Please model this.
Amino acid sequence: MSIEIIYVFAVLFLVVLFFAFEIFPVDKIAFFIIVSLLLFGVVSPEEAISGFSNSATITVLCLMIIAIALEQNGIINLLANGLKKLKTLPILLMIPVFMFISGSISAFISTTAVVIVFIKILTELSVKYNIPRSKLLLPISFAGILGGSCTLMGTSTNLIVNSVATKFGAERFTFFEFSMYGLIFLAIGIVFITLTSFLLPWDTSNNLNQEYELDQYLTSIEFEPSSELIDKKIMDTFLYNDLGITLLKLTRNGISNKSPGKYITLQKGDKLLLSCNMDSLVKIKETEGILINNYAVSGIDDNEDESNEFDSQRNAIVELLMLPGAPFLKRSITELKGKMIHGGLPLAIKRRKNIQNVTDKLLNINVEKIKLKVGDRLLVEMPKDRLTDLSTVENMAVLQEHTSYASVSKYKKMLTFCILIAVIGLAASGVLSILASSLTGCFLLLMFNCIELSKVYQNINWEIIFLLAGMIPLGIAMNNSGADVWVSSHLLELISGKQPTIIIGLIFLFTMLLSGIISNNATAIIMTPIAISLASASNLPLKPFILAVLFSANFSFFTPLGYQTNTLVYGLGIYKFKHFLIIGGMLSIILWITASFLLGNMIPES
Model:
């Protein structure tokens, strides 16, 4: 064993240690790899920074941008409209249906983005219909991972394995080349999780509102004579069917009903006290014949169009935090009308305590009469070009500018969706490589103003980009030093004379276990060269071994640390480690055995 091989193994050992115990953040680990390999001369300066320009890194970056555009323009959020209709399904039927939807979409869109949207939807369903999130979130995460393994663009791991394998002389995968295997694994996952769902906890608590921007605001609405909702039963209006809206009180002719039933017919002059989220508030605002807090929010300036439509290009909805000494303290929404900075319109408030804890008190008064206190938040609509004026107001903090999917124009939604279809179509048909098609898609999104660069910079997962930039040189160093050949030759001695199915099974098992300790992307970069060297030394086809790494790097279901979406749902506090270890562990074993035989059958008998 040469000194270069020993040094590369030492760096690899430290990297695994850093990942396993989270000693340093990902970006620091990436720079440690680059600098340590460069200073020792295992890689050239060009090779050390090649990860930043690698086709896989750029493709992953482009697909992230496309996913951000889909979310910013409300494409992903359109899922909610269809999923709401599934609320009446029994839980045993809901699990496979939701898993199928999650897996199907994740084959073409970022799995993480899909799971985050499902978290929002399921939280709203849980709040309104008492549907247990705990029976669905883990299955949806697993299905998203399995679905992402169905296409080349499904996960960043697929792209990395394809890129690394190509550099080592393997033939490039086509878009749907391994889709048949991915669909088999997805079907197995759906059936298995449905049958073992009784092992999942039953939880319907509503403690996720602070996470994922599901905060509820209080507002009051009144119906004008022109409203189309008059003479309709509450159950027949969007006020009842919208998951983001909860009816707290109805006031008619001075008499309050603190639990308005769904069969009540709305009348002219009725007032409703609502708890709603941002998207629902914008939807209410755009509905003709509805007054918010006793006044019509039809425009910010008197000379503007009288349409209720929220113009996201000109106006913004901002959340203001009241600090001690703020000028709006001890004032109600009614008192603030016309007194906001440059004509800003107060829309709703959120008390400093959790809304469920103060509902009883709020039901006894009108929301427009609630006096603002320190810690309260006020939702205000203002022109974007006047937002800077808020910085001149003392003792008031601008927390965030809200983006509502409801405010995105249909033109941008349609254009963004068409660009996504074009990217998938060009890559799938082979007209363009996935890198070229995704770059073209990003260019079109920027040219047609379908995405804001500021949103891109804020929402890109830079940890993944730096991880790829650091790990790719490590893969090159393993090849330059001969470490991959050394490992494969010693493995070959151990498995000499064994059936190809057994060899592939061992590669699959080791990769899957390693992926549960460090990230799936890092595992893929380390194991792909070793798998190729082992296949070459055994005079066997390369692709079954490459696919073994590709699938197994994604399939570490036995730990919440193996994949980002698993970490995401684990962090919500609903699941314990044992749920991943037992359910995910059994699924990993089933997939390991199945994949070993399927991929082993790809090798012709000698």
